[in-house]
Structure formats: structure tokens, C-alpha cells
Amino acid sequence: MVTEQNVQQFSKQCENIFTQIRRDVIGQNDVVENTIIAMIAGGNVLLEGVPGVGKTRLVRTLGRVFDLPFSRIQFTPDLMPADVTGTNIIEKDDKGNSVYNFQPGPIFSNIILADEINRATPKTQSALLEAMQEHTVTVMGVSRKMAEPFFVLATQNPVEQDGTYPLPEAQMDRFMFKLLVPNPSLDELKAIVTMTQKTMAEVAEPACNGEQLLEMRTTANQLFVADEVLDYAMTLCSATHPDSQCASQAAKKYVRLGASPRAGQALISAAKVRALIKGRFNVSFEDLNVLAYPVLRHRMKMSFESVAERITPDDVITMIIDEVSKKFNLTKSENIEKTEEKKSKFGKKK
């Protein structure tokens, strides 16, 4: 049961995390908040943006703020799966006999920065699939469990095509969020240049450890979700499928393949965390609408019509939200108001 004290403690902990991150990262507030939401919910994050917007710096800062072992893997075309997962090596024991000893790779850490992940070949990219989903690594028939909490935070450049390999759908689906990292505003750019002229050192301090992070995840999992809100979330996901009974007109025209069941799981898990960050006792329609973009944008396979008409996945998600909101008799102003009228099982309003 989530109590008022749990909510206050959760919000305070998150505020401490945000405060420390802001010491090293200027701007990108939405990206930072959504990354924290995904990590508390236990999901992996794909950060997409042009070079120099702070993707790698953000991930390094997260490693410091969460006080967790951090490992960076620079993905290149010649990187092999064993360079990621580790391999068995032959050594001599005390008696002079040859024995196999497992040499763990850089993936055996808590926070993994997969830098420029789309530069590695599909063979190497697939080395992450098991770790991202099951949190285990199998080498030569032996499965080894990863330390918890475990996250893969990957970066990629959306404009450079030479020497890159598109991520397969199976791997994209294992990312809870795909976050688009925008260019900084004029004021943010000035603040970045001013800060880096003084020092390039990262000064963020630990604000949360692994045990506290897992406790926050447990608290979020216990948060109440009203049936109507759950139905709304599942309808949003189902509406991305052009051949489903809930298919939206936008999906029928612009989408070839919709989101998987993982999208529904990710949407609810992340919405619970966002509700707690905002100091609420249960999930609102607003939480689902805001998080639908990072959850769904990379899980939809777009059609040729979308390319021809320059319709982005975010454009389709906006259309789907409008259509589903009308089905549930919601307007933009009612997304929050209607949820606030509902009382949670703890007898408190949102």
C-alpha cells in the first residue's frame, strides 16, 4: 500500500536526483525527467540526437548521481560480441592443468552506456538482446545473472548513415523509451559555453544508490491504476495496429506494424513513476498522453504513405491520442480533471 509518506519521500528523492543532474547538464529537462522515469521503472533508454547535444554526458552523470558501477562500450564496426559479453580464456591452474576461466565483458555492470550503438554490426548488436530483456548473459552454454539494477542507455545519431546499421525491431522493442534530444535554446547554449569555459569536470554528487532505486521501483509498482485509465492505455497501444479492432484512422493510413505488448507494460509502469514524481496517488490520463510518445514512437513501423507525406511517428501518436480521447469522451482539459474526480482505493484524490 502506497501511503502519503511514501509519495512525499519518493518526490523528495527524485527532486534530489534532478538537482544533482542539473549541476552537470544544462537544459534538456524533458529528456532528463523521462530518463529518470525509465530507470526507476526498470527500462532501457535509447537517446537519439545530433552530435554535441549532451547525450553521453547525461549518461555519465546518471552513473555518478545513482552511485552505481558504470561501463561505457564504444560501438564500432569491428566490435565483436565477445568484446561486449566476455569470453572464456584458457589458463593454467596450480597443478599446471589447462582450465577455462570466464573473463567478464563490460556489460557486467549496472549502467551500460552503449555509445553510438548503430555503428556496430547486427551480430554485435544482438549480444545485448538477452541482457536487455532477461538481465542474463549466456556464454558457451552458461547463463550468468546481471547485478541489479541493470540498465542499457544507448545513443545514436539520426542523421549520419555511412557506416551505420539500423537497429532491428526486436532490439528497438526492448527499449522502454526512445527519447529525442533536441538542440539547446539560445539561453541554454550560452549557459553551456559559460560552464565549460570554467571547467569540463563533472561535479554531480551521488543522490541515490541501487538499493534506494529498487525500493522506489517497488513503491511505484504498488500504485493504483483505475480501470478506465488502464483501458485508455491499452486502447492507445492497440490503436497503433492498422488491423486491430481498435485501429485508428491514422494507423490504418500511416502504420504498417503497431506496438507490441511490451508497449502496454512500459506505458503503465512509466506512468506510475510519473504520477509519484508529480505527487499523485494514481495514474492520470495526462501521464499516459505525455508518455505515449517515448513509449510508442520507436515501436511503430511506418508505411510508405507516411514517408511520402512526411508524417513522423510523433504526428501519428498525436492523431491516435485525439481519436482515442474522443472515444473516451475526453477533451484536453478533461484528461486531468476527469482523473482527479476518481478516488483511489486509499481514499485520496489524485
Quick tags:
350 residues, alpha/beta, five-stranded parallel β-sheet, two-stranded antiparallel ribbon, disordered C terminus
Between the first and last Cα atoms, what is the distance in angstroms?
15 Å
Annotation field: number of helices = 16
Strand order of the largest sheet: 2-5-8-1-9
Report the helical percentage: 40-55%
| Helix/strand class | alpha/beta
What value does the Rg take, in angstroms? Answer: 21 Å
The global form is: globular
Q: Round the mean pLDDT to the nearest integer and report it.
A: 87
Contiguous runs where pLDDT drops below 50 for at least 5 residues: 336-350
Strand content: 15-25%
Account of the protein in words:
With 350 residues, the protein is an alpha/beta fold. It is 46% helix and 15% strand. The chain has 16 helices and eleven strands. The strands form four sheets. It has a five-stranded parallel beta sheet with strand order 2-5-8-1-9. It has a two-stranded antiparallel sheet with strand order 3-4. A two-stranded antiparallel ribbon has the order 6-7. Strand 3 (86-92) and strand 4 (98-104) form a beta hairpin.
